[in-house]
TrEMBL record:
Keywords, sorted A to Z: Membrane, Transmembrane, Transmembrane helix
Sequence intervals crossing the membrane: 6-25, 37-56, 68-88
GO molecular function, one term: nucleic acid binding
Protein name: DUF1294 domain-containing protein
Length: 89
């Protein structure tokens, strides 16, 4: 239960951060550091970042984001499937 809530919150956070950073980039104002975006993605928010890239068309020309967020998402899904299989089935 708590893992599910954490997943929703962390992914929603990175999704929102991608939108905020895109808006700031258009306005030419202060931006969110890429290190922070990657930190949230590594903490479990890669799916939210990946969806945010698509919705806001942000960071889509950066190969590291374009390949990294989907890779991390698949890695987390595989990890969660393994844990669910190992401990709950």
């Amino acid at each position: 239960m708590l893992v599910g809530i954490y997943g929703i919150v962390i992914n929603l956070s990175l999704f929102i951060m991608m939108g905020v950073d895109k808006r700031r980039s258009k306005r030419g104002s202060w931006r969110i550091e890429e290190k922070k975006l990657w930190g949230i993605a590594l903490a479990g928010g890669a799916l939210g970042g990946w969806i945010g890239m698509s919705v806001f068309r942000h960071k889509t020309k950066h190969t590291s984001f374009k390949l990294g967020f989907p890779f991390l998402t698949l890695l987390y899904i595989a990890g969660m499937a393994y844990l669910a299989n190992r401990f709950y089935l």
